[in-house]
Amino acid sequence: MRGLYYERLKTWLLVFLVLLSLVLTYFLWTYKPDLMEQDSEAVEVNEIGEEKSIQDVIRPSKIVKHQFGESFMVLETDDPFDEIYQTLLNADLYETNAFPQTDVTTGIEFVFPDRIPMGMFMSLFSQDRQEDEFPLRGVDRVLLYEDEPDNGVKLQVYSSGDKAPFEIPTSFQASDLQRFLDDDTAVPAITVNEPNTDSYILNQENIYIPSGEIAYARQQYSTERVPADDITKTLFPDPQTVRNYRQSNGEFTYTDGTRILNLRDNENFMTYRNSSISDSTNSSTSSIPQTSFDYINNHHGWTNDYVLSRWRESNERESAVYRLFVNNLPVFNFKNSRDSMTIQVEKSGTQTTSYERPLLKLDPTPIDEQNIELQSGVSVLEKLEAAENLDLTNVQDVRVGYEMIDQDNQRGLVTFEPAWYVFTSNSNGWQKVPAEGGANELE
Fold first, then answer.
1. What integer pLDDT is reported at residue 15 of this predicted model?
2. How many whole angstroms separate alpha carbon 82 and alpha carbon 328?
């Protein structure tokens, strides 16, 4: 009798073990990791730089004063540039008006590098406003001016995608606006594009550049690198599973089988790819500029001053580009035919699939500085007009920036050389305008 009892007990125990094995096998084969949660855990492991605010990374590329029938540029390297913009951000915004004035000839125009999503634009200001209060999808340009009948200062807001500005009364003081307009440090400006006679200044979408010769500082900085260990701890959920090896070209590669990190150019730059794509087709409810900003902020990834410069959205992929700025000027480096001085984040659905960036950290102050006088804006425009392979209708921006020069025999030192740059739609990128000779290589 006792033997029969033990036989039944063993049978039931065997059945239980078989069922448990089937259940565990099912969960093993159907388990799908929450990749967003893994990303969140990964980026919170280590801090490689600083955390920033929206106001730090959303900045105008140009500030232009309009008065007396002429236009004047506030130079990016002059103190009034930051003062004017910060005073605007400190102002309150009131109820919108869909029918702005068309006869405004005096005011201050702010031009942004790319369209700013409406939600991010609103978060630049202190008060809490709902996105549906504003009839535009984003903001390219704004115009600050005084509405003389009621002595109030208003803000016209414009989107190139909507082509219809609207107006917002503000708490900006008329006396501050007049003080900024009276400041004589701004320089005369010309437009690269053909003159536009639209009744709204913002609708003209003018590309402004200083007309005369301007001196900018050539600077040299000491640098340090973000350690490779800090990067792997940030980007890989389990750094213990990461293998690394050195390639024949000298680059270092780190991988856990699904994620791969390449360090190139003396480990000064990195490229990260994540091939583990979630089956979910759900897209984020936030724009790629917002989600990429949050992604970088989560691991305190701002190693110096970066500004949102460009972003793109499609059904399959989204990307945002933040460019390094020094002295309020964008930095370019086309070593090995790559525009390397940017932080680029790419997403598919809710998953971050690509992350490229410099790993250099600049010291707070330069170790050497010398003023360099650049060719005039008039001369630059003449070169663009004479370039055989360049159509001016394809030019989207022209401005002064820095070329970052790093010498292999001077590790830890970089030089920032001021130069003129042009952005064209057909090349979809920036090109340096030659200081000497023609510009036939531009396209």
1. 59
2. 9
Q: State in Å, rounded, how far the first CA of the chain is from the last one.
A: 95
Reply yes or no on whether the pLDDT at 215 is more than 60.
Answer: yes
Q: How many CA atoms lie within 13 A of 159 on its CB side?
A: 14
pLDDT tier for residue 330 given thresholds of 50, 70 and 90: very high
CA dist., res. 13 & res. 231, Å (int): 49
Nearest of 279, 242, 260, 237 to residue 40 by alpha carbon: 237
Residue 251: name the closest of 235, 229, 230, 228 by CA: 228
Query: Cβ contacts of residue 140 below 8 Å, gap of 6+?
Result: 111, 112, 114, 115, 116, 158, 159, 160, 205
Q: Which residue has the higher pLDDT, 10 or 389?
A: 389
pLDDT for the residue 191: 95
Of 23-27, 43-47, 81-85, the range with the highest mean pLDDT is 81-85
Confidence band for 24, pLDDT divided at 50, 70 and 90 = low
Nearby residues of 54 by Cβ (< 8 Å), 6 or more positions away: 120, 123, 124, 293
pLDDT digits (tens, 9 = 90+) for 281-309: 456 678 999 999 999 999 999 999 999 99
Question: What is the spatial distance between Cα 28 and Cα 375, in angstroms, rounded to a whole number?
Answer: 66
Phi, psi of 15 (to 5 degrees): -60, -45
Instruction: Collapse the DSSP code of 7 into the 3-class scheme (helix H, G, I; strand E, B; otherwise coil) and give the result.
Output: helix
Between these two residues, 426 and 111, which has the higher pLDDT value?
Answer: 111
Cα within 13 Å of Cα(395), Cβ side: 26
* 3-state secondary structure at position 254: strand
Distance set, CA 412 to CA 218, 221, 222, 231 (Å): 17, 8, 6, 19
pTM for the model: 0.86
Q: Would you report the helix, strand and coil content of the chain in percent, each value rounded to 5?
A: 25, 35, 40
Separation CA 414–CA 417 (nearest Å): 10
Scanning 236-354, the segments in alpha helix (DSSP H) are 288-298
The total number of residues written for the chain in this structure: 443
Phi, psi torsion values for 3, nearest 5 degrees: -65, -40
- Would you say residue 408 has pLDDT above 60? yes
Nearest to 169 by CA among 194, 187, 197, 146: 146
